TrEMBL record:
Domain of life of the organism encoding this protein: Bacteria
Residue intervals passing through the bilayer: 42-66, 73-92, 98-118
Name the record gives this protein: DUF8058 domain-containing protein
Pfam families the UniProt entry points to: DUF8058 (PF26247)
Occurrences of domain DUF8058 (ranges): 5-117
Keyword field: Membrane, Transmembrane, Transmembrane helix
Tagged with keyword Membrane: yes
Length: 126
């Protein structure tokens, strides 16, 4: 199970910057970092998600190279950030891009499961 969690963390961690690169390349950031969406600079939202991506990538790498016990705290931290990013993005996508709702819901559920696993292990799920 640890390896599956590592793969999920790496996929999610790589997917977040890929999403934002695609978002930028499609011209939806006309003012770059100064773009305002719903009254806020989007750069802060993007930064929070990129930090989350870095945490997820780091957690996946530590699991692979050092084992889950060494990664437990990092997985919990990455999962918490991912829960925030997933729920926040779920709110945005429900207003703008309904196709992404399922993806963000799934990511949020994976993050909750990963946080629980980091605290208790799979045997406690039963």
């Amino acid at each position: 199970m640890d390896f599956i969690l590592a793969i999920l963390m790496v996929i999610i961690g790589a997917g977040i910057p890929a999403y934002w690169l695609n978002y930028w390349a499609s011209g939806r950031l006309p003012l770059g970092f100064r773009t305002i969406v719903n009254g806020s600079y989007i750069v802060f939202h993007i930064l929070a998600e990129l930090v989350t991506a870095g945490l997820c990538l780091a957690a996946g790498a530590v699991i692979v190279f050092h084992g889950f016990p060494q990664a437990r705290a990092l997985v919990f931290l990455a999962s918490g950030a991912l829960i925030y990013a997933g729920v926040n993005s779920l709110g945005w996508s429900s207003l703008t891009d309904h196709r992404m709702v399922i993806i963000f819901l799934l990511v949020s559920l994976i993050a909750v499961a990963a946080a629980l696993y980091a605290q208790t292990g799979w045997q406690q799920f039963g």
